[in-house]
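Many introductory courses stop at the sequence. We go one step further.
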Amino acid sequence: MTERAADPADAIRLDKWLWAARFFKTRQLAIAAINGGKIHVDGQRVKPSRVIRPGNRLEIHKDSLSWEIEVLAINKQRRPAAEAALLYAESETSRLRRQELVRERRELGAAIPDSKGRPTKRDRRQIQRFTEHGDAGG
């Protein structure tokens, strides 16, 4: 027997691990991200059925955020977030880069005024008058 098949309890499908580690709410979202090339294992694009073990390095890109992590443990069940965070270790540069991006987003969001949602009847009339007036002149 080979050493790779020594303990199947130390291996799990990539999509299941991403779900259990709480990177995605559902396995279907994890599968879509993997198929879309947003997840790399040890620098290679993989399929959702790829078996991962502790020691594998993952690159996860979700929206504009990204993580560079190392798998520390395997858990086949989805547990609370505090326990899920113990399944991986994020590199320091990855964490700092992500925190900086979140901080920039927060500052940018504070500079943009909040919209009130749908225009009121009065707002719609003003928009309509403005656009009708603008069309007549040009």
